[in-house]
Write a structure and sequence with these properties.
The structure holds two protein chains of two kinds. Chain A is an all-alpha fold. Chain A is built from four helices and no strands. Chain B is built from ten helices and no strands. In chain B, helix 3 runs antiparallel to helix 6. The chains are: A mainly alpha, B mainly alpha.
Chain lengths: ~70, ~200
Amino acid sequence: MNQTAAEATAPRLRLRPSSWPAAAARNSYVLLAMFIALVALGRLAGGGLTMALAIGALVAGWLSSWSP
Amino acid sequence: MALTINPAGSGTRGRWLADAGSFFAGVLVGALISAAVVMGVVGLLSLLVPGAWLPLVLLPLVVPVALRELGLQVPVPYRNQQVPEWWRSVLPTGVVALAYGLMLGVGFATLFVTSAHLVVLLALPFVGSAWALLGVVAAFAAGKTLVLYLAEGTSSHGDVIARLSVAESTSTPSRWARRVTGLGASALILATLLHLGSLS
């Protein structure tokens, strides 16, 4: 397949398969999935305010570690 | 932050891990400073408002940040600037990691990202023990530091940039995934807090 000049000079923004585990550290869907999993685990464990706060704090920290 | 604290910037993998540790410590201390200020204010407020009503009194403070997270341009008490770029060129990486950690740990000294940050801080005074409080703040610091794993196995800044999926972070579904997560975390904390308030 021929590559256009624009394609040749465009920055490579897509993830390479080998970097997927590390790139998950900055992925919105991984963050959402982790939040849902933690809430489910928290409910199973019968967690109270401290558990809710710990989940919220982890999410707040992770989410705010990258700018929009 | 992974563009500043990465194996190439630190020199070796060992130094990178130490710098990540400095960043974590900085975030922890910065967040504890914010927590102390909020707890002081809530403590003063508790002299005027009965304990069971305190969570309800704090609730209006959450409204602007929740609206901002939904994309509305509502004023929020956050500085609309990133960490100072020039620190990277005048300070050693370990010191920069600690200083950036402190600034980001305080939270209000940089850009607003999620309502969950303020909600967590407002709920901290209602945690029963100092160890539980420290655990919550450590969870916040761990979450902030997690993004540095992005640089794992890289050998240049170019490698780190290649891992930043701009397509993922700017797409509309991704934006909503982040909003749902942040607002979900805020709602979870507030629901638990109000439930506890109604029991007391």
